[in-house]
Design a protein that fits this description.
Chain lengths: 371, 362
């Protein structure tokens, strides 16, 4: 069952590579996860109904970030472990890479517990979390052990299955008060930027490019797909924000924990009374690649640092994730972990330009030294 | 054969994922479709009434029978608990379609109830809320039609009227207005007559309390000022008889006027209509008569709307959401100042009535 690439270095043989086109699906699916179900409320707390500007602003920053990452990877010729090693040396570099791996695990963990909470609050308060998380982690183990190509396939399926859910936006728009989004800026640039920071937290995920870059065939050609993915995500978030803004009144939205799921509540078909049940069930497909890519990325980084097979790391990670996932429960701790993961992610995003800068400096110094 | 094993594992995981919940069968649960709340015997207590449709075991279609349960409880959640005590099957409230409050209770305030309704994930946002003139218990326990349950009947009643003269209403819309700045909610009033129920007006809320009501004769004018719609009828005494106006398209437009220090609102309605009934009107339909009828309607709507706006100003409520509208058009909207200015605000109402057809007989 183990189809993970066992090559320790960066030269990955062609049968493990994916076409540049798939970068679109991987980045898109990584960015759209659990955050989109409830990010509106946090934006509104910061910048009211002007927060749609923040989403667009955040999108622009992400485009710049993609550009920076490609600069970094093209010059560094590899992945984050390689770059860290070049810039910081073996030990400090390795340590920083391990922190990055820990961050990837944190994201997977966060997605899992938040999704379980959504199931518990919206559908089954009495869910047997032990069994559910066991089966879910089993599924993730199965997919990740299939290797990066299988994960890419899952990402593709996830995007395709997730798309029809977009059509549901029609229902809340119908019931909406469109005058709510009249562009009438009431908030200071500071507040709007604060909301942009907040929305960047739900945009997290594109930094995984730093890990899977060596797996892309003709990486140069993948640039445009990465940008497409970021653009598409931004638009998706933008539409979601607009829809919830017309559907809820401002004070009301501040009290709605899961804005997007709440808009599903008015969807009614003759054959199904409450659509959010279907939506949440389908959302498992949307978050599945998130968890998989997170765990795959973490184990991949570990493997690049230590000379141990990735499958062993995968087993250890899956087992050690199972207990916290099954144990953490309740709105407050989960919210705290969400915020923590968001803050860490925010600093990771900030760290990438810094890394580029350090890399350029170290390249210059090295050149001078060689001369 | 290795691949087949993989497929098997994959599918069995999905199957296993579904097995994490205890199952519940539909026949085994009591599905509450309507609930009503009255003031209880003692102060601070609530009397809750629910109706549970009883489905026979045989396949033969029989008359809809319902079981009515009434309990006296401390709070809304307590009602559910108390009803559980009287029921032989587990209560399920996911299909709750209509929730009623007695006028008595609504005048004291239903904010607590609103909190329960907005918090519970099992409830539908399309649920109808209504205020009952009288006791909700009487209204629920009175079977109205042979082949429909009370809840289906009331749901249909409200839905049908919302498509005609009554402004749109649902739990979501109530919550929207309840929380919005510069907007106050309203609900339809149901009243029980001898053998039937009718929608008899609108109750206006200030936060959670009913402060004033509007009779059904004026509801058309209110809906006209509130939203665009294309159905509904309004009658008017004209000359020696009555004419009936059939709305085929009405659009409303708000405009902010005046200075930021002293704002005002213009409400302009364009109403396109047909006249399908002219009882006791001697004249033949002609452009001149149409003009007269139009003027009569304009006069009527203007007086009505003016009275209504005065009423809203006097009670300090804003069911039209003018403050909510002004907020979207004003930078740094000051809610407090708006509320202070509201009672003396210059709110103008203008209406264009255009009568295009007079039916197929002249």
């Amino acid at each position: 069952m183990n189809k993970l690439n066992e090559n320790q270095g960066l030269n990955i043989s062609e049968n493990y590579l994916v076409s540049p086109f798939y970068v679109f699906f991987i980045i898109f699916t990584m960015q759209v996860g659990i955050g989109i179900l409830g990010f509106e409320r946090y934006l509104v707390e910061k910048a009211g109904f002007d927060a749609w500007i923040s989403v667009l602003t955040a999108g622009v920053f992400l485009h710049i970030l993609v550009w920076i990452m490609y600069r970094l990877l093209q010059n560094g010729g590899g992945d984050i472990v390689h770059i860290h090693k070049q810039v910081f040396g073996k030990y400090i570099g390795g340590f920083l890479s391990l922190l990055f791996a820990a961050y990837a695990l944190l994201l997977s963990f966060d997605v899992m517990i938040t999704f379980i909470e959504v199931i518990k609050v919206w559908m089954f308060p009495g869910l047997q979390v032990w069994i559910f998380s066991f089966v879910m982690i089993g599924l993730v183990y199965y997919i990740v052990s299939g290797g990066f190509r299988v994960i890419t396939g899952i990402a593709l399926i996830s995007v395709v299955i997730g798309l029809p859910i977009l059509l549901l936006k029609f229902f809340p728009i119908q019931a909406g008060h469109t005058m709510n989004i009249y562009p009438n800026i009431n908030h200071s640039p500071g507040q709007i930027l604060a909301a942009a920071k907040q929305s960047a937290l739900s945009f997290l995920g594109l930094e995984f490019l730093l890990i899977f870059y060596p797996f892309i065939k003709n990486p140069d050609k993948s640039k445009k797909w990465a940008h497409f993915a970021v653009f598409y995500t931004t638009m998706l978030y933008f539409i979601s924000v607009l829809v919830t803004f017309v559907y809820f009144s401002e004070e009301q939205l501040k009290q709605v924990v899961w804005g997007t799921i709440s808009t599903w509540k008015i969807v009614e078909f003759p054959f199904i009374e409450r659509f959010e049940y279907v939506g949440i069930a389908m959302w498992l497909y949307v978050i599945l690649p998130n968890i998989c890519i997170g765990i795959w990325g973490a184990t991949r980084v570990m493997k690049r640092i230590f000379p141990v097979k990735q499958i062993h790391f995968l087993r250890v990670v899956c087992i050690s994730l199972f207990f916290p996932v099954a144990l953490v429960a309740g709105r407050d701790p989960i919210n705290a972990i969400n915020n923590f993961a968001g803050t860490v992610g925010y600093y990771v995003l900030l760290y990438i330009p810094v890394l580029l800068l350090l890399k350029m400096i170290s390249d210059k110094v090295r050149k001078r030294y060689e001369n | 054969m290795k691949i087949k094993w993989n497929v098997l594992v994959l599918f069995s995981t999905f199957l296993l994922l579904t097995g994490c919940m205890p199952s519940k069968s539909v026949e085994e649960s009591a599905i509450v479709q309507i609930s009503g709340y009255d003031r209880g015997g003692e102060k601070g207590r609530i009397k809750g009434t629910v109706s549970i449709p009883q489905y026979g075991k045989s396949e033969k279609k029989t008359a809809a029978s319902e079981l009515y349960l009434t309990v006296d409880a401390n709070s809304i959640k307590d009602v559910e608990k108390e009803i559980q005590k009287q029921s032989s099957k587990p209560i399920s409230i996911g299909k709750l379609a209509v929730t009623l409050y007695s006028m008595e209770l609504a005048k004291e305030g239903i904010s607590d109830v609103i909190d329960v309704l907005s918090r519970d994930a099992r409830l539908s946002r399309n649920m109808y809320l209504a205020v009952v003139d009288g006791q909700t218990q009487d209204l629920i326990e009175n079977g109205y039609t042979q082949d429909e349950t009370t809840s289906k009947h009331l749901q249909g009643l409200i839905e049908n009227n919302v498509h005609h003269n009554f402004p749109s209403t649902s739990l979501h819309e109530f919550l929207y207005a309840y929380f919005a700045i510069g907007m106050d909610p309203y609900l339809p009033i149901l009243s029980k007559k001898e053998t039937f129920v009718e929608v008899s007006g609108i109750a206006f809320f200030d936060k959670g309390k009913v402060v004033t009501t509007l009779s059904d004769a004026k509801v058309f004018t209110f809906k006209m000022m509130k939203e665009n719609f294309s159905r509904g009828m309004q009658d008017l005494p004209f000359q020696d008889g009555t004419i009936m106006l059939d709305n085929i398209g009405s659009t409303v437009d708000y405009k902010l006027t005046g200075t930021p220090e002293n704002p005002g609102v213009d409400i302009h309605v364009k109403l396109e209509s047909e006249v399908n009934e002219m009882v006791g009107v001697e004249e033949k339909p002609s452009p001149k008569l149409a003009k007269e009828m139009e003027d009569a309607f304009v006069e009527y709507f203007k007086t009505n709307a003016g009275e209504m706006i005065e009423l809203f100003k006097k009670e300090g409520i804003d069911p039209l959401g003018l403050g909510h509208f002004a907020k979207t058009r004003t930078r740094h909207f000051d809610e407090k100042r708006w509320e202070d200015l509201y009672p003396d605000m210059d709110i103008q109402f203008t209406v264009d009535v255009e009568i295009t057809e007079y039916g197929i007989f002249s």
